[in-house]
Amino acid sequence: MLTNTHPKLGTLSVWAGEEEYLLQGATQAPVVHSVSFGYNDVDEWLQVALGQKPGHIYGRNTNPTVQIFEEKVRRLEGAEAATSASTGMGIISNALFTLLSPGDRVVSVKDTYGGTNKIFIEFLPRFQVDVALCDTADHEAIEAEVAKGCKALYLESPTNPTVKVIDLARLAKAGREVGAVVIVDNTFATPINQNPLELGADLVLHSATKFLGGHADALGGVICGSKELVEQIYHFREINGATLHPMAAYLLLRGMKTLHLRIRQQNESALKIARFLETHPAIKRVFYPGLESHQNHDIARQQMRGFGGVLSFILKGNDFDAVRAFLPRLRYAHAAANLGAVETIVGPPATTSHVECTREEREAMGIPESLIRYSVGIEDTEDLIADLEQALAYVR
Ligand SMILES: Cc1ncc(COP(=O)(O)O)c(C=O)c1O
Questions:
Q1: Same-domain pairing of 203 and 300
Q2: pLDDT in tens, 156-200
């Protein structure tokens, strides 16, 4: 049995969570669309409702297909418990609004995903939560803010879209010293490349919409950690109703069976492409944690098993007109607001990661308008490089 051994990440991607729920010899997880679950025995019904017996009552609370998805991610992240939400933002807002109350303080970084940043600058202050956002690269400044005391420390690494890397073990230690709950958005790394709980974080979360699902056909979010913390987040989510749909859970589960293969390919391709772009005369700057020139390359090498499938770059001249000319020339890339899929996806922050932010807000976060985020798919690396080459020639 899978549960009695120590399977590696690839085996877990394929098998974890599923074997207990297979029906009547089916080899694939069932998609249970039923909204409610009936009981002939009222006492059994009551036991399930009180959590004294496993089972389901109502689809807003729990669902068998959703539970399999949560279980697979829980095993991959090596956590005690996991719960999910309808989107990545659903799980991020549920976590923050569960843990924080008026008068509390939260410390984070300026470079979080645009939607997360909006929670910090627009919504939490409305509930009298004090938010301190530090320069992402400045570990001393983050430690100093944490040392003043905070209820939660929220980190993302690598960040979207400039792929900065934060020393998670160092900052988790700082957070724990003041009793803060340390939360890490692991969307860009995936559990194949990095396990923040092993580095000392209390909670690890994902936009499952991205690499976990990997096929750009289902939205979802998931968070893992101790039973105590996850149950609190689950309770808030079951009441506010941001539930993951069973069909989305199935699509995410199916996608996750190839997670390790996709990530392996994407790690390898992204590094080759980053090296190619770094030496190209039309490119001003490339951001990728696997490059020796990356400001946090040493930290990345220490805490990541691979450097991920996303890189970003700036064209020479730092000119948005060049971006306008370049993007439509790419043959093997969707120009779209997503990442982490089997197809390569490309776009500038103004229409992707930071579409909800104003130009001034992006500037304050240090995100150049003419940055191009390039999420490497699973196409042949040589074809992607040739595609970039021809599009760059056109720009020049
Ligand atoms: C790092 C990161 N976290 C969270 C999210 C939000 O996820 P979702 O779009 O599933 O709500 C995104 C979306 O791009 C992301 O890139």
A1: no
A2: 999 989 999 999 999 999 999 999 999 999 999 999 999 999 999
Q: Is 287 found in the same domain as 210?
A: no
**Could you give the CA distance from residue 84 to residue 246 in angstroms, rounded to a whole number?**
11
**What is the domain range of residue 272?**
259-395
Same domain as 108, residue 93: yes
Q: State whether residue 77 is helix, strand or coil.
A: helix
Q: Which atom of ligand 1 is nearest to the CA of 156?
A: 1
CATH number at residue 297: 3.90.1150.10
pLDDT digits (tens, 9 = 90+) for 356-372: 788 888 877 778 888 99
Is 310 contained in some domain?
yes
Statement: the pTM of the whole predicted model exceeds 0.85: yes
Task: Give me the number of domains the chain comprises.
Answer: 2
* Last residue within a domain, chosen from 256, 287, 304: 256
Q: What is the CATH number of the domain that holds 57?
A: 3.40.640.10
The CA-CA-CA angle for residues 209, 213, 219, to 5°, reads 30
Q: How far is the centre of ligand 1, averaged over its atoms, from the C-alpha of 394 (Å)? A: 32
Residues with CB under 6 A from ligand 1: 87-89, 113, 115, 156, 160, 185, 187-188, 207, 209, 219, 221, 353
Q: Given the CA of residue 112, which atom of ligand 1 is nearest to it?
A: 1
Active site residue 60: yes
- Based on the residue annotation, tell me whether 58 is a catalytic residue of this protein: no
> What burial class does residue 110 get, using C-beta atoms within 10 Å of its C-beta: 0-12 exposed, 13-18 middle, 19+ buried?
buried
Residues 386 and 264 in one domain: yes
Helix (H) or strand (E) holding 108, with range, is strand 105-109
CA 3 to chain centroid, in Å, comes to 26
Mean of the per-residue pLDDT values for the chain? 95
Structure tokens belonging to residue 260: 């390790």
204 & 276 share domain? no
pLDDT tens for 122-157 read: 999 999 999 999 999 899 999 999 999 999 999 999
Residues 101 and 224 in one domain: yes
Q: Whose CA is nearest to atom 9 of ligand 1?
A: 88
Full strand arrangement of the beta sheet holding 203-207: 81-85, 221-225, 203-207, 181-185, 152-156, 105-109, 130-134
Query: What are the beta bridge partners of residue 314?
Result: 285, 371
